[in-house]
């Protein structure tokens, strides 16, 4: 079975109010189960994405930021400057990724393994992955059988 989904893209400037409003719109109106931001996670004065994310989330998911930094530290010592984070707003998972394409690829490939289980626990859709790219990890209670239900 294929996971049905539609990508929604937004490109906005690094302005906290605009980031907060856009995150709310994507979670509340667009009903995105996963919202991924890129950039704005460093120590520069304009880097306000983590603060905007924290402001709109009901609960934070610090494990994602910890894992992303650990992955990046394998590649660059400046990963300690990153303030990547993730949080939950309603039934949406919001993840702040780094801004550089190489760093995005390095972190998302490894971190994404847990995203389908998180989305499922939030009562979102059952996300399937291409195992050749990333194999989703699900605890036994979250694995859906591929066999059709008995009549």
Automatic annotation (TrEMBL):
Its EC number is 2.10.1.1. Residues 1-118 form the MoaB/Mog domain. Coiled coil: none annotated. The keyword Zinc-finger does not apply. Pathway: Cofactor biosynthesis; molybdopterin biosynthesis. NCBIfam families: molyb_syn, PRK09417.1. PANTHER family: MOLYBDENUM COFACTOR BIOSYNTHESIS, MOLYBDOPTERIN MOLYBDOTRANSFERASE. This is molybdopterin molybdotransferase. The gene is g12829.
């Amino acid at each position: 079975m294929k996971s049905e989904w539609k990508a929604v893209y937004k490109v906005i400037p690094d302005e906290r109010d605009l980031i907060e409003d856009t995150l709310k719109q994507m979670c509340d109106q667009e009903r995105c189960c996963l919202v991924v931001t890129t950039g704005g996670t460093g120590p520069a004065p304009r880097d306000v994405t983590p603060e905007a994310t924290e402001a709109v989330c009901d609960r934070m998911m610090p494990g994602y930021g910890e894992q992303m930094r650990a992955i990046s530290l394998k590649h660059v010592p400046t990963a300690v400057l990153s303030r990547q984070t993730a949080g939950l707003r309603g039934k949406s998972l919001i993840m702040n990724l780094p801004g550089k394409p190489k760093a995005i690829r390095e972190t998302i490939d490894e971190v994404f393994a847990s995203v389908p289980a998180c989305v499922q626990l939030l009562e979102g859709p059952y996300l399937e992955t291409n195992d050749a790219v990333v194999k989703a990890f699900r605890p036994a209670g979250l694995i859906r059988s591929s066999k059709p239900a008995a009549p």
